[in-house]
Amino acid sequence: MSEPVLLQVSDLGRDYDHGRVRALHEVSFSAQRGQTLALTGPSGCGKSTLLSLVGLLDRPDRGRVQVDGIDLAGLRRGADFRARRVGFVFQFHHMVPTMTLQENVEAPMLALGVPLAQRRARAAQLLDSMGLGARAGFLPTHVSGGERQRAAVARALVNRPALLLADEPTGNLDSRAGEQVIELLVGHARSQQALLLVATHNPDIAAAMDRRIELLDGRRV
Amino acid sequence: MIFLRNLLRAPLRSLMTVLGIAAGVALFAAVSAITADLRQQIGAAIDAYHYDVVVHERRAPSPFSSRITLAQMQTLVDEYGEALAPMVIGTLNESWSPYALVMGVEPGFANRMALVAGRPMVAERDEAMLGELGAQRLGLQPGALLRLGDKDHLVSGIFRTGSRMFDGGVMIGSRQAQRLFTPAGSEGHFTLALLRTGDRAETARMITEVQRRYPELRAIPATEFAGALRLFRVVDAFVGTIAVVALVGTVLVVTNTLLMAVAERTREIGILMAVGWTPWLVLRMLLAESVLLCLAGAALGNVAGLALLHTVNGMETVGFGWIPVSLSPSLVATSFALTLVIALLALAWPAVVLWRMQPLAALRHE
Lengths: 221, 366
Known about the structure:
Number of strands of chain A: 10
Oligomer: heterodimer
Helix content of chain B: 55-70%
Structural class of chain B: alpha+beta
Strand content of chain B: 15-25%
Number of strands of chain B: 12
Number of helices of chain A: 7
Distance between the termini of chain B: 26 Å
Strand content of chain A: 25-35%
Radius of gyration of chain B: 28 Å
Shape of chain A: globular
Structural class of chain A: alpha/beta
Radius of gyration of chain A: 17 Å
Strand order of the largest sheet of chain A: 6-7-8-3-9-10
Order of helices and strands of chain B: HHEEHEEHEEHEEHEHEEHEHHHHHHH
């Protein structure tokens, strides 16, 4: 029996510059829990825009996104949805430079009001599992790019989200560090029955996913 | 200590903000301390003389400018006798002090003063009694001569009232004081009269009686004397204005610092919003920074206020020894409470910016 649909994207469209730039043209697809999807296409084809709309960082001009049957258009504030259901991994790690790796990983739990002791323990355990236990107290500027990105993955996983959205997560890493990051993301998606959506240029990463959705000029091809 | 790390990212800006807050707090604390102390000193001095009612000219804005004519005072003396103490109070610009406080009193009053050295003065002999602080400053002992106007006065004794203002002054006979303060050819006058009643009911009765019989005079309980002076109402308004200006200025300084922090950290705020932080949560982080800046500013401001009081007190032409050199615990607490209000008010504008911030736009901010 197949997993139930987690993500339903229907005729999604997004324009910028008062409609002069059409970033996304009526894109539709659906995906189940535990699946891994690659969003591929050249730069500017709408991959990041699609991830932003699915993760409720932005609102669509047309169409709708449903996660677990919830229409995102009906959510007044996206913060709680992002904290509970979404884990983001960006190309440039996007860590807060004045927070240690441990504090960065704790940040999404703070949004959910998780007690301090639980935050500490969960973040430490995740960092440990990614080989960053000894680096937990370091500021992001004092660790390598690969370590930063692994910490960013830990931050994305810490609230056990159903939706993992990664935008060129290996774009800034060497091949070994990139492989590690993809293994971590795919491993989590499989073990937690989460949906992983990865925007990538890299054909090897795309090939490692269950499915591929290709975009060109904002349209699905 | 994320907020501390955030503040230390721009150490100079944080330092300048703390100094700005400290300047406002120092000004507020010093001015408030001076007025509160002046009020307390006048109250303490009147209390030390054990008088219950103060009679002064109704329209006088300050005790020094009150004028009670000789005829008015004579009728008061006839009425109340020994219970009444007429006084002439004024200041002189002397070589030994540019603001010498001189009190002209009747012999009976002088004889009741608590002396720490010497004997009571004999008013008719151009003798004077010096306050303890004045004597210390001038290095004079009983037997020394003190120049007042164009006459030397023999210092007969050193008195103590407990009020720095009065203990820094000189006491002479009321006739001599009238000569000093009245231009040649003019009739002398008294400044005020102190009245001893005995109990509160009698005090109320005498106040009513004095005001009924002498409409141009005003009688008030001694305990309310400082508060009833128009001068103090003006000073209170002045202090209030300074407090408001300092408050508004400090709020603007802190607001500017927080807005710069929000502008510089827009992308970081975008990251936090992407992981689920609400504007409230981001604002809480800014609040911690704002409170830390304000508390540091309040602590430094109180120290600076104290230093300012010491400096002004040491300036002979300004301080003349009346200026307090300490801050009361309630004033320190008030200044800390005020800075906490500042910390909150300064968040208003950054809060608006945060509420209007879109996570995606913040993440893409360069």
